[in-house]
TrEMBL record:
Species: Triticum turgidum subsp. durum (Durum wheat)
Protein name: Inosine-5'-monophosphate dehydrogenase
GO CC terms, sorted: cytoplasm
Pathway: Purine metabolism; XMP biosynthesis via de novo pathway; XMP from IMP: step 1/1
Chain sites annotated for binding K(+): 267, 269, 272
Enzyme class, UniProt record, top EC level: oxidoreductase
Active site positions: 272, 368
Amino acid sequence: MAADDGFSAARLFSQGVSYTYDDVIFLPGFIDFPADAVDLSTRLSRRVPLSIPCVASPMDTVSEAAMAAAMASLGGVAVVHSNTEPRAQASIVRAAKSRRLPFVSSVPIFSPAPVSEYMRPAPRSASASFDFEQAAALLADEGLDYAPLVSEEGEVIDLITSKDVERIRSYPKLGKPSLGADGKFVVAASIGTREDDKRRLEQLIQAGANAIVIDSSQGNSTYQLDMIKYAKKTFPEVDLIGGNVVTIGQAQNLIAAGVDGLRVGMGSGSICTTQEVCAVGRGQATAVYKVASYAKDHNVPVIADGGISYSGHIVKALSLGASTVMMGSFLAGSHEAPGAYEYKDGHRVKKYRGMGSLEAMTKGSDARYLGDTLKLKVAQGVVGAVADKGSVLRFIPYTMQAVKQGFQDLGASSLQSAHDLLRAETLRLEVRTGAAQVEGGIHGLVSYEKKSF
Ligand SMILES: NC(=O)C1=CN([C@@H]2O[C@H](COP(=O)(O)OP(=O)(O)OC[C@H]3O[C@@H](n4cnc5c(N)ncnc54)[C@H](O)[C@@H]3O)[C@@H](O)[C@H]2O)C=CC1
Ligand SMILES: O=c1[nH]c(=O)c2[nH+]cn([C@@H]3O[C@H](COP(=O)(O)O)[C@@H](O)[C@H]3O)c2[nH]1
Ligand SMILES: [K+]
């Protein structure tokens, strides 16, 4: 492409305008490879590789054991939220890491009555270290309807049933899972910056957390810098992700303090009211581009956090320099998100709430606020609901296929290649006017059905 067509990102993002994903559009590049050849493997942080660039947000309506097992089995990762007691959070991490199956069943396995009173003895059990194919083969070979999943310590941790096998088989084939050096699923977890969080950190690391996210809307604080220094000194072997940041100045401080990854986004989340309440933040496209262009020189991967509604947003975030995207609302309506489905106006929905909503704050993150001299609580998020999306094991593979098609259109065969095109200014983009955005969407139809896959 002629270099004088469109704008380079460097030029576009230096004009004093805060842009978000929908404001910008990439100009197509040259295709000389099939979409299937696009390599989406990446890193969550310096030492945590992933095979897909997807991260589930540390929110109590998104990331618990079922999400963590499913995301790791897809090659991504979930960050287990901290809106609960440290012991409970650590046991969620343990539960996800104790298996190699892509799900945590909802069958209650704890009961006041001895199990033998209401269940037949299982003819065979499956080892908790079995992956899906091994467990499915056991059920098929032995003609079993179910088998308990038994840990190395002889504890029954779950059940696998022939129905689970049927369900998982109806989804796209599982790719390369995220496994740590211990051969177990990669699971991350979040902490805060209070004195108590040091104890939480210790318990999470004992539970085997592969990376720790320091969860704050404004990471550039003396509290976070102190926590980074403490964590890096006490547990140097575990990757530490700082944030959130949206400027180079914030990133500089956290990188200097030693973080292995950065989480970028302030006010961009679907449930966020931070920009409204505090007047601080940044358009997400600008934030990702600016922080990533600084962090790359320090070998610090960037997580583009918030504002992802569809695959095109993921392509934009990654092409603007992010190594992964972190998602809340995109994953919240899934089978794997915590909570039960409800019906609202005839739609099947799941609750999704901001961690800075009054409801979430009074549930657990309250400690943050109760300790403050100023005890007036002001929400920076809302409580809402999102539509049932089915299993992440189904819609994430389709979403990744769409992302590969986007990369192919750009002429980028991998994340590294997209980042190279960006830095070489071969990647060209423009701002879309309001009319161009309308044109880029579905328009002029009396009615339509949108079925993506
Ligand atoms: N990405 C985003 O745009 C936003 C995200 N959130 C989410 O909401 C949740 C809460 O975020 P925040 O309110 O930023 O939590 P936070 O824990 O970072 O801050 C809450 C308050 O506690 C203070 N604080 C923190 N550590 C302290 C210490 N050691 N001593 C004294 N004061 C201390 C902070 O300065 C702040 O006033 C998080 O899950 C966050 O991800 C909230 C707002 C915006
Ligand atoms: O202003 C905020 N108030 C909140 O209560 C809140 N809770 C979460 N978050 C942030 O939003 C991200 C998820 O955003 P999405 O739903 O758009 O994926 C998350 O990953 C967070 O960065 C919040 N931001
Ligand atoms: K918002």
